[in-house]
């Protein structure tokens, strides 16, 4: 048998070159995020994992099948109505999806479309941030739509698709790598479309831009690349905002829209304090603190990352770059605390409701992405990051499950009351001429829901009571079960006089009095605290 061929000795030039690269300063090394090459193959495993996680969030809401606030009017009258709120593209999208007007309830098509978009976004973000494995991208992106506040957005049958599309477009605008001459107008167009679908999505854009900068610092990306990337995003943002200002002037109509779109720069500090107070008051339990810790992780990681990056890059940086490095250390952590509320901070009377809190979910997602990026630099296996992120993911799935069950209970409770009230009106009409009806107080929540609310205070913000005095949606709730006279307002003196009088009809949840041809439904007080908003 022939001897194996003997190869001549080759000097260890390769290892020598590797050692030479290893001792180079960080700024002189090849960039690892410049931006990273985008693989042409779609990350199917990450998509599947995200589909499972987002499905666990969405399924309880889908199963509850409740018409949520505005849904009642759109389901019965089929109107659009988003354009007057500065959301003209929402009108276009829903008219296309619904194959024209009037709109009809096509559940579960919008919800499933939103689910697919969210899973696809998770896969794209995982590829953009070079996250290993299948579950790490899904866990990092889950807070975008798994945040307890976003459960309200997912509850709108007619609006879930428009709001989620806005979120996805804003995220893509933030993640779009710098390529070609059209990169700036492309980002501008994506952000403008997101604003025309749902304005709070802009906060998602801002936070993901910050997350990319912080991730780039942890990966020792060259300062010039990060500055060009940031400049591109700023330019796209300014162009999109200028164009959207024109859209607002042409579309915003009505008292509600005008009241909540007025600008007051002096209100920034008060609004910032109010938004964070709202978060702290709705996240008071241990489960809430788990999510607050996740959201807060980004701040120290951004500070440490900026300091580390400045120290490693400073010796080889020019004057302009050094100024940018010095500013980044305090500004990046502070920006993370302000960015969740974004442009809403300059509004004279912003809406304080879960549906506009998309920025908080984006802050949690940004924290998770920064954590996943920093872990390898700290020489820790990425599986430890997965282990840490499983805990808040479990909390989000738990809250979504409790919320879905509570939503179903609330629907059954108010539907039962509404049917009884419509029947009472029909019976009273046989004996009296009724020109209107009036509600005093609110229907409240059933016992099971009140129990759930004691354990999860945020449910008080997520579970509206349609049968509420002075709320226009009470009429829509009743009309789903039959014709009712117009809603009237009753003077406070009349309400006081009725307190000690015998009702015409007495039920467990309310009493009915007929005065001056008006049927007055007086709900019994249940001692529930009012919503924080």
Topology:
Layout: H1 13-22, H2 44-64, H3 70-77, H4 88-97, H5 109-128, H6 135-141, H7 143-146, H8 150-155, H9 160-175, H10 183-197, H11 201-218, H12 223-251, H13 255-259, H14 268-282, H15 286-313, H16 319-338, H17 358-377, H18 382-429, E1 436-440, H19 447-455, H20 459-462, H21 473-479, H22 492-498, E2 505-506, E3 510-515, E4 518-523
Parallel strand pairs: 1-4
Antiparallel strand pairs: 2-3, 3-4
Helix pairs in contact: 2-5, 2-6, 2-18, 5-6, 5-9, 6-17, 6-18, 9-10, 9-11, 10-12, 11-12, 11-15, 11-17, 15-16, 15-17, 15-18, 17-18
Can you give a write-up of this model?
The chain has 533 residues and is mainly α. The protein folds into two domains: 43-380, no CATH class; 410-523, no CATH class. 61% of the residues lie in helices and 4% in strands. The protein has helices at 13-22, 44-64, 70-77, 88-97, 109-128, 135-141, 143-146, 150-155, 160-175, 183-197, 201-218, 223-251, 255-259, 268-282, 286-313, 319-338, 358-377, 382-429, 447-455, 459-462, 473-479, 492-498, and strands spanning 436-440, 505-506, 510-515, 518-523. It has a four-stranded mixed sheet with strand order 1-4-3-2, with helices on one face. Helix 9 (160-175) runs parallel beside helix 11. Residues 1-34 have low confidence and may be disordered.
